[in-house]
Design brief:
alpha/beta; Rossmann fold; two-stranded antiparallel ribbon; 8 strands; globular
Length: 224
């Protein structure tokens, strides 16, 4: 059984009524991996906007394995102290990670955020020395498009993230840098300039799926 843990912020946890990219990538791997695959993590809920809390189980597909390590408003800063216990307790084989927007927007600059990536990787490897990780850069969003200093921080962090992946990748515990979904359009692929709509969910899932397929030969080419 391949055990995959999605890790992320509001774009990963999703909100009530959504499928989420987690669902899309799981469906893809079920069809193409060639063996049993499941999602794991210490959390299950989605974000309930009405309650302003992660209390919803209203997934568009309630039958898929909804486990994850994601939270609305959480970033590398928040997940680095949690990931070791999560990997250990859930026996994760691979982490699919989409983080950084929250850090840069509210907590840390690009250099500090990159240091938290290193701390995250170290904690994950302490729990499982053979853990595999796929890291997604911060994708285009409305704030980066309209706030020039913030946009510069995002671009700088993405450069540092690529260097960090190159520095930390090792045969026993490989790390892949996923590509930003091609032709990402904040008007067509999000419902508010940041959070993915159904088209965006497929594109985010495709970014992870293509990294898994091209980097490690897991699954196949993503078909929305």
């Amino acid at each position: 059984m391949l055990r995959i843990m999605p890790v992320g912020d509001s774009m990963t946890i999703g909100s009530a009524g959504e499928h989420t990219w987690r669902h899309r990538v799981w469906r893809h791997l079920c069809a193409t991996y060639g063996g049993p695959v499941t999602l794991v993590g210490p959390r299950e809920t989605m974000y309930d906007k009405a309650a302003d809390a992660p209390t919803s189980y209203a997934y568009a597909d309630p039958d898929f394995p909804r486990h994850h390590l994601a939270g609305w408003g959480e970033g590398w800063l928040h997940m680095a102290p949690l990931v070791g216990d999560a990997v250990r307790g859930c026996r994760a084989d691979i982490l699919l990670v989409s983080l950084g927007l929250i850090d840069l927007g509210f907590y840390t600059n690009a250099e500090q955020t990159a240091e938290n990536v290193r701390g995250f990787v170290a904690q994950a490897r302490t729990a499982n020395p053979r853990i595999g990780m796929v890291l997604l850069p911060v994708i285009p969003n409305i704030r980066a498009a309209t706030d020039e200093p913030f946009g510069a921080q995002v671009a700088h962090f993405n450069e540092l993230l690529a260097k960090t992946v190159a520095d930390l990748d090792e045969p026993a515990s490989p790390i892949l840098l996923a590509s930003t979904p091609p032709a990402w359009d904040i008007d067509a692929h999000t419902y508010d300039g940041t959070h993915p709509n159904a088209h965006g969910e497929h594109r985010l899932a495709g970014a992870f799926a293509e990294a898994l397929h091209q980097g490690w030969g897991l699954g196949g080419t993503y078909r929305a």
